[in-house]
């Protein structure tokens, strides 16, 4: 009889909000100026539901790149893989309309100690904050 016949659900939910991201990074291997956007997955791994990017004010258009890291230093390209990328729109600070939030559905499990990092492709003025919604098993 096969193992894992019953669904499992995250036990400990996590939401981590990044520091402000304004600097460009054109590296496609997860090295360079990267920002950690999730805590390391727990001993039994974690489930990543989504990654959200929220503009802080007026920015030029860019791209958000999300890298999966194996739990080791992100300065070594072999430790990272480009997991997802999405266009970020130009944004204008206003007091009469909401800023555009960008959501990347992930819905995947990751192994123990793995974590997520993010970069943007072009420098922006106000910046973006990125948050990851996940949970440890």
- The percent of residues in helical segments reads under 10%
Question: What structural class do helix, strand and pairing data support?
Answer: mainly beta
- Oligomer, anyone? single chain
> pLDDT average, as an integer?
95
- SSE order, as H and E? EEEEEEEE
The end-to-end span amounts to: 23 Å
Percentage of residues in DSSP E strands? 35-45%
Helix segment tally = 0
- The value of Rg in angstroms is 16 Å
Morphology call: globular
Poorly predicted regions: none
Describe the structure concisely.
This protein has about 140 residues and is mostly beta strands. The protein has strands spanning about 10-15, 35, 45-55, 60-70, 80-90, 100-110, 115-120, 130-135.
Question: Could you describe the 3D structure shown?
Answer:
This protein is mostly beta strands and 137 residues long. It has no helices and eight strands. The strands form two sheets. Strands 1-8-3-6 form a four-stranded antiparallel sheet, with no helix packed on it. It has a four-stranded antiparallel sheet with strand order 2-7-4-5, with no helix packed on it. The protein is globular, with a radius of gyration of 16 Å. The chain starts with 11 loop residues before the first strand and ends with a strand.
Question: What are its keywords?
Answer:
mainly beta, 137 residues, 4-stranded antiparallel β-sheet
Please render the helix and strand layout as text.
Layout: E1 12-17, E2 35-36, E3 46-55, E4 62-69, E5 80-88, E6 102-110, E7 115-120, E8 128-136
Antiparallel strand pairs: 1-8, 2-7, 3-6, 3-8, 4-5, 4-7
């Amino acid at each position: 009889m096969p193992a894992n016949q019953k669904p499992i659900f995250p036990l400990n939910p996590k939401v981590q909000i990044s520091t402000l991201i304004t600097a460009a990074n054109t590296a496609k291997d997860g090295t360079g100026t990267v920002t950690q956007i999730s805590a390391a997955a727990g001993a039994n791994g974690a489930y990543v539901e989504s990654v959200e990017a929220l503009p802080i004010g007026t920015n030029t258009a860019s791209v958000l790149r999300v890298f999966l890291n194996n739990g080791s230093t992100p300065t070594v390209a072999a430790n990272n893989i480009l997991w997802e990328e999405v266009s970020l729109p130009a944004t204008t600070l206003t007091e009469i309309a909401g800023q555009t939030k960008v959501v990347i559905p992930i819905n995947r499990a990751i192994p123990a100690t793995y974590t997520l990092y993010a970069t943007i492709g072009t420098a922006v003025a106000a910046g973006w904050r990125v948050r990851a919604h996940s949970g440890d098993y």
